[in-house]
Amino acid sequence: MLQTLGTIALFLICPLMMVFMMRGMHGGHSDHKMRGQAKLKCRSPQEKLAALRGQLDDLQAQYDHLEHTMHAETSPTSAAVDRYREKHF
What is the 3-state secondary structure (H, E, C) of 30-51? Predict the structure, then answer.
């Protein structure tokens, strides 16, 4: 009798453990994405604009660094960089 109960318990535990492991693997990732999207939707337009301005400042700093590096390597390209900057900024 005890051996039969042990066998039945083993067969019930295996699928339950699989369900919990799969939920942990897949459910955790999609849950984080949904929370992030929900956060973005809950933010005010002013907060979104401030975040975008911060990203723009970071990108501008990266661009300036690359421009400086490129200018140090080859000076003839500085005129092309200046023309590009005049058109786009």
Answer: HHHHHHHHHHHHHCCHHHHHHH
Query: Would residue 66 be called left, alpha or beta, if left means φ above 0 and alpha means ψ between -120 and 50 degrees?
Result: alpha
Q: Residues 50-68: pLDDT tens digits?
A: 999 999 999 999 999 988 8
Model-wide pTM > 0.70:
no
Which tokens sit at 38? 């929900």
pLDDT at 28: 55
**Count of residues making up the chain:** 89
Q: Report the phi/psi class of residue 44: left, alpha or beta, with left for phi > 0 and alpha for psi in -120 to 50.
A: beta
Distance from chain centroid for Cα 44: 20
